Amino acid sequence: MANIELVNYIKAPISTVYQTLTTREGLAQIWTKRLNVKPQVGFINEFDFNEPELTKMKILELEENKKIVWECIESDKEWVGTTISFELSERNNKVAVLLTHADWRAITEYYKWCNYNWAMFLQRLGNYCEHSSINQ
């Protein structure tokens, strides 16, 4: 099994980063505007990327300002059964966001494309958290 593991350092309060990753308002700014999310363990977040299928992520774990874990239960076949986690910690007046997309069955072209897109996701997360009005 393969994992995608990326880190970004964000100059914003850890609560801002956590809220952005767990709320409709935040995720709509950095991922897709067509979504149904709720910060509740067991809830199935739905993301519409204008693909044939919705991407559905079951929330497995929420530890406020520390950790978020999703399990992909519906999406592209390569995503189904994988987990996405965000681990947050404060270091040197910045929030370290460790994103892990785990349990890929193979390193495919799609895996490599997703690796790139997760990096872009973390960049949008940082830009939004550092420059949005919720950080003021």
TrEMBL record:
Residues 11-129 form the Activator of Hsp90 ATPase homologue 1/2-like C-terminal domain. Gene3D superfamilies: 3.30.530.20. Pfam families: AHSA1 (PF08327). CDD domains: SRPBCC_CalC_Aha1-like. Belongs to the AHA1 family. This is Activator of Hsp90 ATPase-like protein. It comes from Sphingobacterium yanglingense.
